[in-house]
Amino acid sequence: MLQLVAAEVPGTRQEIEFELLRVRGEIELRELWFSRLAAALAALDDTDEEEREQTTIDWLRHNCRLTHNVAADRVRIGEKLPQMPRSEDALYNGELGIQHLAVMARTAVAVGDGFDESKLLGLAKKLSPGRFYHESLHYRPSLRPQEVAEEQADLVENRRLSMSTAEDGCLVLNGVLDPVGGAAVRTTLERLAKPMGKHDHRDREKRLGDAIVELATHGGKVKVQMQVTSSIETLLGLLGAPGAETEFSLPVSSKTVERWACDSSLTRVLLQDSVVIDVGRAQRVIAGPKRRALVARDQHCQWPGCERPASWCDGHHIVHWINGGGLELENMVLLCGRHHWMVHEGGWQIVKSDADGILPVAPMHTLGLPRGPD
Questions:
Q1: Nearest to 230 by CA among 280, 187, 193
Q2: Domain spans of the chain?
Q3: What radius of gyration, in Å, describes the C-alpha atoms of the chain?
Q4: For residue 201, what are the contacts with CB-CB under 8 A and spacing of at least 6?
Q5: What pTM was computed for the model?
Q6: Residues of the chain with pLDDT under 70
Q7: Which of 14, 31, 83, 368 is the least buried, fewest Cβ under 10 Å from its Cβ?
Q8: How does DSSP classify residue 318?
Q9: Which tens digit of pLDDT belongs to each residue from 222-276?
Q10: Residue 16, SS3 per DSSP
Q11: Quick one: which H or E segment has residue 232?
């Protein structure tokens, strides 16, 4: 059993850094020897494969307490050392680490007989292992372009997306995209998922979730066409009124209907005592010259600090027309999808000031109920 003698930790930064580099160098050499042994064990296992109950990698995982990827890397390094002698020398000299050799070995496996370490060694000495891995991905396409192209075409053919509705009406997404398609989606979502102005305290996952909805509902100048069936009582937000209904969704609240009715492209079906009394055509409430004037005036979302362009914004009635607000330009303001949601479903209010523009007012939260009588 290996026993380590506790030593006093050096006191100065320079001494600590020196000791870290010394110990790391020893670990790298031991890792290289470990890799040789792992490859030797794998070679033995290949000769009596039918008699063994587990692979070399599984044995390393369970007995040496490694993850699958680390165990596989150590076997690869040991197997490919004859093809990368200069990289091995660079590790002995402290120019490379064991993770550099892991990337080299993976590349050698992927490329096969065409592997030439001299093409990558210079990069490995200059870059961190993570950066070197990304740069090494260019090496295989340069040698086997047709093979890589066929693999990428196969990945495109295997794009998958499943959609299921949970009991609470939430849509659950699960899917896989090919690298190119995934990069296109991610590039778009990352741009939309940046923090938006003041009062944006969302974490990254929340911002990405909002971004994919914004992409679907404001991804261009043509808005999503939706049909909403609602009672007059629901539209007015009266107590006891049922939720409104849309295709592919559970009943929605009066606040959501109010936001859609503010400036959306929807077809409304109004009911009274379960009888259809009105079917409105799909049209924007703020349209034509009125919309163009609003865009020319505001140009982007008017929430403080938000710069979503006008094509991604709704026209919001400061005093909603349900409550008697008019269609005058002074009663309208451009808000992006998130901030429009905040002033309807989110409970925020906005006040328009000639001097300061739009001033958001946060919703009031009750932290606890007052104590009742004893």
A1: 280
A2: 13-143, 160-218, 221-284, 286-366
A3: 31
A4: none
A5: 0.52
A6: 1-7, 48-52, 219-255, 257-258, 260-261, 263-285, 321-322, 365-374
A7: 368
A8: S
A9: 444 555 565 555 555 555 555 566 654 556 666 676 676 676 555 556 555 555 5
A10: helix
A11: helix 232-236
